[in-house]
Specification:
This protein has 126 residues and is an all-beta fold. It is built from no helices and eleven strands. It is globular.
């Protein structure tokens, strides 16, 4: 069993930056695909970015490509999301996810992920 805890959310002005962190406990995550999703008010949860088990490849939603960077530190059992040039439409609760199957692919569907954090809110003011 894996527990995921996100942190780093907050209030930021448009054009600013935030760095989200996700810390995993329960077992090592060095064989798992990990991802970030987000859910804005009155909207469905949507894919943001995913990263290969060894960090060698990444995949982004078009809406964040070039502004957000996903990374991981397997030695620290941690996942990160660096968010730059933030826009008001980036306002959402951001969730960390882990697929739970060793050496998977860069999935972008919620159903591909078995473990979820509780989310951290990000608010971007205009």
């Amino acid at each position: 069993q894996v527990q995921l805890v996100e942190s780093g959310g907050g209030l930021v002005q448009a054009g600013g930056s935030l760095r989200l962190s996700c810390t995993a406990s329960g077992r090592a995550i060095n064989r798992d695909i990990m991802a970030w999703f987000r859910q804005a008010p009155q909207k469905e949860r949507g894919f943001v970015a995913s990263i290969l088990w060894n960090g060698a490849d990444t995949y982004y939603a078009n809406s964040v490509k070039g502004r957000f960077t996903i990374s991981r530190d397997n030695a620290k059992n941690a996942l990160y999301l660096q968010m730059n040039s933030l826009k008001p439409e980036d306002t959402a609760v951001y969730y960390c996810a882990l697929d739970g199957v060793a050496y998977g692919d860069l999935y972008n569907r919620m159903t591909d992920y078995d473990y979820w954090g509780q989310g951290t809110p990000v608010t971007v003011s205009s």
